Amino acid sequence: MDRERMLMAYKLAAIDIDGTLLTDDYKITEKNKNALKAAEEEGVQIVLCSGRAPFSVTPLLEELGIAGYFICHNGAVTSHSNTKEILHEVGFTIDSLKNVLDYCRTENIHTDFCTAFDMYTESLDREDVRAMYAKYLAQPKLVEDALSMKDTLVKFTLFGTDAQLNKAYDELAAMNLPLRMIRSGPSYIDIIDQTTSKGSALSNLAKHLDIPLSDTIAIGNYYNDLDMITMAGIGVAVGNAPGDVKEQADMVVASNNESGVAEALERLVLGKKQQV
Fold this sequence. Notes:
The protein is an alpha/beta fold.
């Protein structure tokens, strides 16, 4: 990479949470915390950008001592941690997912569905499901029948084994849904509006803040991060990312367990730059 490009003054860093900012045991390393605060002091807006719902993002911002915009639901919602203002929201109705619901019920794949700020599910009977929600600080509300939901949804999620979801992805893709399916992790498929992605949300937020995309950094680890990695001025993959994600990034840094976010910020913002 051109060293002169690295020395530019970046104004915004969009950072994925799970598998990127957090370690495998869902902690933020002290090195990452220090680098994020230092980057913010250098004038870089820190924007957490996740598939999580707001209630799973804002506690991390509080832990970091950072306030501002964040992107959640894989780009379907952009909000502000202080004002709870919704800057951007793209949704759909549950009716468009009747065939998906039928499939998941038949295949014993757990599902949940989110409005901008709330999460719902039909069942909390399984121990693995309850453990999964506890990791994400989630307390979904129970509904008897998802199809009774009248509110606009922003995300519908399937939770299962990697093998289950590989099969489900192929079979659901054959249904030609009017929505977008993405693998947001080995245990998850997210279904969102066709126009929604972390990349499109980053673009909308940068425009709102009057920041050129060329002045943005995106750091991620998985396929749902690719849109923002390829759209940002510089896209960074952490070392634990799949090979085909790394191939599309401009820079590869250490893994999530080795404070890869801090390495990226040190090289791009904080002056500890090395030739890539």
